Amino acid sequence: MVGKIAFMFLVGAQIYYESLWQHFFDQADKTQYSITLHAKFDFDHNSLFKSYEMPIKVESSWHYTMRAQLALLAEALKDPDNQKFIFISGDAIPLQSFAYIYQEVMKHDYSIFPYWWNHHQDPTSQFYLKARTLIGIPAHQQYINPQWVILNREHAQAMVDDTTILPLVLQTVLDNEHYPSTFLATQGRLSEVIKQEIMFVFWQSGKDSPYVFSDMHDPFQRGQIVEAIIRGKFFARKFTAACNPESIQALIDQYGCKTDAELLAN
Q: Rounded to whole angstroms, how far apart are CA atoms 246 and 248?
């Protein structure tokens, strides 16, 4: 598959690890990627990524971001060379080289993200949450997915054009964790998605929020990230600004997955 990957950053006011991302994109040819950025607040004017910021701002909150994400998609779709579309958060980092991610994402036409049936709608389930029941959508077509998904161009365009399913999903909380999978389910297109987790997030038992990484010299934190790199995760979050980017890059260089070309060369 030939074309670009559209990297779409959904941020508050900054990208925490710009040096890592700059190194990541410096590995690539300009014909292989595009960058689009939506900032909720005033984005850092000194940022290396300031030129990629969208001129419009779409109101969002942590549990209502789908309209902002669709605005990013609409902007990225203007480039006819963009064939895959990846959502990235401002506190995320790449865990692999650009070459490896490009190879894995572009070797097929599928979208990529895990999904599962919406168990929150089942009153008999311990996970039942009325606020996450999608009113107006048949139970068997209600799904959940992580917010950070990879879409192919057909799916991206269909979502931007949708005026039927989106209004129904927007009535629930965490619209970003329902819309992509539920929309594709209503279109009979979930079979066009590879169920692969692309964003490593560490959830501790009993905690409602993801673990926040702050020190790559800490053995536990370092071990979690090394394992994620070895397992082939593309990206990871959440990281504070206290992490040393050089130490993270050293882990990527040491443990990162190899492309087919790199394996053949060795």
A: 5
- Distances, alpha carbon 23 to alpha carbons 28, 148, 186, 231, 259, in Å: 9, 21, 40, 22, 18
Element (H, E) at 34: strand 33-39
Write the pLDDT tens digit of every residue in 17-55: 999 999 999 999 999 999 999 999 889 888 999 999 998
d(CA 15, CA 173) in angstroms, rounded, equals: 25
Domains of the chain: 4-265 (3.90.550)
Structure tokens at 107: 């070797």
Q: Report how far residue 250's alpha carbon sits from residue 167's, in angstroms, rounded to the nearest whole number.
A: 45
pTM of the model: 0.94
More confident of the two residues 14 and 156? 156
Number of H helices, E strands in the chain: 9, 11
Q: What pLDDT is attached to residue 208?
A: 72
**To which residue do tokens 């673990």 refer?**
211
CA distance 16 to 215: 14
Whole-number Cα distances in Å, 9 to 70, 72, 86, 113, 224: 12, 8, 8, 17, 24
Containing H/E element for 127?
A: none
C-alpha to C-alpha distance for 20 and 114, rounded to whole angstroms: 26
What is the CB neighbour count within 10 angstroms for residue 48? Answer: 13
